[in-house]
User: What shape does this take?
Amino acid sequence: MQTAVAISVDGLGFAAWLFLSSVGLTLIYGVMRILNIAHGGFYALGAYSSAWAIGLFVNSGGAVVYSFLLIPLAALLAGAIAGLLVERGILRYMYGRDEVLMVLVTYAIFLILEDATKLIWGTESYVAWQPAFHFGTINVMDIPYTVYKFIIMAVALAVGAALFLVLNKTRVGKLLLVVIEDREISGALGINVTLFFTVTFVVGAILGALGGAISAPEISVLPGIGAEIIVLSFAVIVIGGMGSIGGAMLGALIVGFARALSVHLYPPAELFSIYLVMAAVLAVKPYGLFALAESRKI
Assistant: This one.
């Protein structure tokens, strides 16, 4: 019974982190049809910004409770600035190009962002543990968990609900769905497609930075974390269906529980289990669980 509880809590915790880290990637693909490899760079920028700001604030005598405000602030600033520079400075000149070329371009941007983080923060690791332990721990079946883990779960639910409401219950969301369906018709109807692309990319970058910022208190922030998250995020959105917010949530749950099961039952298969699940899903649903097959255009 204790093992089952541990698998459940760890699976939900890992799924919440994965959803926050990958939902921006699937949002950008769903609207712009860009597989944004640079998403890993946004995650790393958010993590470094958050860890640096928290460390500076706490070491300067600031109350730990207020350091929580630095997490969304760091994500907002890092994601908005980097996302706007990348979209306005590079990607807007590439729209309409082959999808493979866009992957190569965003991969090059990812490498640039990786070097930028090293130039700004160096190669030493950053640890900002204070927020994660400020609220203490809670026992679940005699297993201690930090309250911060459950805060991350709550944030993931809030972000998922907010995206659902914006996309399905607001005028902006309905216009965005029109842009997704047909860019040319949207432009003919007077919809500013360029503005929607810019806002979507910046929001996706902020969400990617939020995934890094909120995870910073629980991890050691060091070079290479962006490459790790882009691989895991890709697995999540492929399982759920590329471009689907609901699919990203379901994919995160599947990956989260697959990892938790392997960690508690057979640790050597931790990474293998994720890709085994991805292969099994794609064997049955080649486009992911929530994605529709697209007609091939010649």
Observations:
- The chain has 13 helices and two strands.
